Structure formats: structure tokens, C-alpha cells
Amino acid sequence: MKTNAHILIVDDDTDILISARILLKQYFTKISICNDPKELDQRLTTEDIHAVLLDMNYQKGRNDGREGVYWLKRIKEINPYCAVVMMTAYGDVLKAVESLKSGAADYILKPWDAEALPKLIKSALIINTATTPSIEEKTTTTNASLNTQIVTGKSMDQVLKTIEKAAPTDANILLLGENGTGKQIFAERIHQLSKRVNATFVHVDLGSLSNSLFESALFGYSKGAFTDAKENKTGYFEEANQGTIFLDEIGNLPLELQSKLLQVLQNRVIYKLGESKPIPINVRIVCATNMDLNKMVASGSFRQDLLYRINTISIELPPLRKRQDEIALLAHHFLQKYNHQYSVEKSLPEKTIQYLKTYAWPGNIRELMHVIERAVILSENSDITPLDLNIVPSDVVISEIQNNLEIESMEKNLIIKALQKNEGNITKAASELGLSRNALYRRMEKYSL
């Protein structure tokens, strides 16, 4: 199924435009091309563009990426909610990082991998759809700040793939993950990719509902149903009718309330307090928890029949400590957000980024966001130092990083030996290593070979 999005490709190389369009039209509903970035103003103001794939260099002989950063900033001035992915044939990491600070969602090197490019753009679109205020959703949450999270990287590929398959169906979905891993964002994304996208999305924090408020909040009540019922009140289920209801922290629901919720999910009707007439409901159910529901079933604290109802498809969101490849991107994203919010120009040197990777992040993305915000506010210099972060590194994470460095060193040596053995012949070296030519090129770029 194609993602419903309009992608604009901007490059002065006709071959790049054509090949990118052929590739991406398999994954997105509309692909447009542009060979002159000067057309961006007109295109962005007259067309509904969701993402731009933007080259970093245009003038002949220029390869410093400054033009791309200029046009990136221009795109963000015209439409701050347009997702932008930078592309370059030169792999200028410093300029790529600068583009992230200026609002790019990510960057990719040319020649790109045919699988990686559409995945990267889809990840960038999640940022766009999760933060664009024009999406007509009604939620009951005040935790809007987490809607600026970025979800990208190898560890998220399977999550995104499962969501894209499951979202268009009406299957009940259970999101599993630690606090701060972005369960609400994924619930919203499921709604946006579903057939119910034009109806209401309602977020209910079950953990905050007391036993006495549960029925009145979820099912509503009529005037006079109890002492303080001064007027008729619509409940969350009725409010979400034809749309999606997101039942967050379902593991916190007491047993006596679990049975009431189960009846609603089984019968698809609700009864307002003070009324005996059943109200049919047609809603998509998405639930989330940070608890182990199977263990709770075994201990008798969670109903097995309710778990069966909500667990047609389960999706586990990995914690940030297992998403090492994303920490730098997330940190720069939040840095840009808070630099703008507090009207400052702070930066994250490489040593600070490396220090961030040594921390275990028990609070996950939410904690990283707060750490960066605090550092932006309190750091005395323009460069944020490790001391400004006020976090203590984890020995476990440090060990994992050291292991990764050892693996990378081994891989680099294998590539060098294969190239030497085959006298620099890329095709033969790639074949010997069991890689495609493009995959070998990417690794050579990574190790500066």
C-alpha cells in the first residue's frame, strides 16, 4: 500500500530526478520533480507538498553543501511543517549535521540504497504528520511536546513496516514499550494511516481515571444521573465513534473496571449513566502499556479474555538505549527546537554527542528531550559540554559501544583486505564480501576508504 503523501524531488541532475521518481512512485501517491531550487517558493505556496528530497549542491564546481542548507532554511520559512531530507554525493558530514540543526529530518548519500531511501522519507513524514497542526484530530492529552519526536533508524524499520500493514485494517493494536518511547505518537500514526483518518482520534489515560470516574468519563452521562450531573455529557467512546480511541496505560486498569471495558469491546455498545438505552459504537481500539500483561495474566491481575481482545496485533517499541544510531539525530532535533524556543544559539560538539551515547536513558526519548532543554537553558557557553547534561554514563552502554567499535574495526579491516586482494576492483571485492556494490560504497564512505 502506498503512503498518501506528495513528495517533491529537487536536483539539477535529470538522471537523479528520473531515477528517484521511478523508485519513489512505488511507495507514495504523488511524486513531483524540480531541477531548479528557485522554483521552490512558487511550488510550496501553490501545491500541498508533504516532503522535499533536496540536493545539497547546484552550481557547477560547488560541493560544500551551503546552497542546500540555504534552500532548506527557505523551505522551513515557507512551511515549517514540511519534512525535508537532504541528499549529497559528497558525504559532507559537517554540512549534513548543520542541515539537521536547520530543520532537516535526515540526509542520505548518493548513490542511495533502493530500500533505504523510501524508508527514510517515510520516517521523515512521521515527524511531519505528528507535528502538523492542520491534521484535524481531537485528543484529550496535554502532552503535545512529545509530538516532536523523531522515529528513524534500523531499529525502527520493523515497527514502521508493521504499522503500515496493520493501520489500514480495523484490527485492535497493542503498543508495548517503556515510558517515553513514543507510544502516543505511534497511536496517532496508526490513526492517520487508517480508513478512519477523517474521524476523531481520542486519547484516554486510563491510569488517571479513578473507579468512580471511569464509567462517566468513558461512557458519558445524562443530566441528573448523579448529584453533580448538571447537563448531558458525551463520553470518550461516543466522542471517538467512527474514529480511533487510544486507551493508554491499560495495564493500570483495576480488575473490576477491566470487566466493564471487556463488555464494551465484545458488544460494541455503551450505556450512558442514567440511561438504559444502548448506544452502538464503531471505533478502532489502540491500547498501550509499559507493563508485562502476560505476567499480569499469570498473576491474576489482568483478564486473559481482555488481553485477547486488545492484542490482535502487538508492536513493541525499543527503548532509546537500543537505538544508538538515533541519539545524535534526536539530540540535534531537540537542540534546534529549544534554540528556537528560547532564542539562543547553542551547539552540541561531537564529544557531547558521544557522552550522550554512554547514558542508559531510563526515561527514553522524553528524558533526552528534557536533558537537552535543561542544557540549552543552563549552559553558560555556546557549546554544551558533558557537564551541562547532568547525567551519569552507564557501564553497560559503554561496554556495548566498545563492542560496536571493535566490530566496526574488524569490518574495516576485512574491506581493506578484500580491496587489496582484488587490486581495487569494487565489483570483485563486493562479491567476495557478500555485499552489493552500493553497500560496499557506503561502507567505504563510512570508513573513509
TrEMBL record:
InterPro entries membership: AAA+_ATPase, AAA_lid_NorR, CheY-like_superfamily, Homeodomain-like_sf, HTH_Fis, P-loop_NTPase, Sig_transdc_resp-reg_receiver, Sigma_54_int
Keywords from the named record: ATP-binding, Nucleotide-binding, Phosphoprotein, Transcription, Transcription regulation
Transmembrane annotation, as ranges: none
Gene3D superfamilies given in the database record: 1.10.8.60, 3.40.50.2300, Homeodomain-like (1.10.10.60), P-loop containing nucleotide triphosphate hydrolases (3.40.50.300)
Superkingdom in the source lineage: Bacteria
Occurrences of domain Response regulatory (ranges): 6-125
Molecular function via GO: ATP binding; sequence-specific DNA binding
Domain Sigma-54 factor interaction residues, every copy: 149-377
GO terms classed as biological process: phosphorelay signal transduction system; regulation of DNA-templated transcription
SUPFAM superfamilies in the record: CheY-like, Homeodomain-like, P-loop containing nucleoside triphosphate hydrolases
Modification type 4-aspartylphosphate: residues: D55
Protein name per its UniProtKB record: Sigma-54-dependent Fis family transcriptional regulator
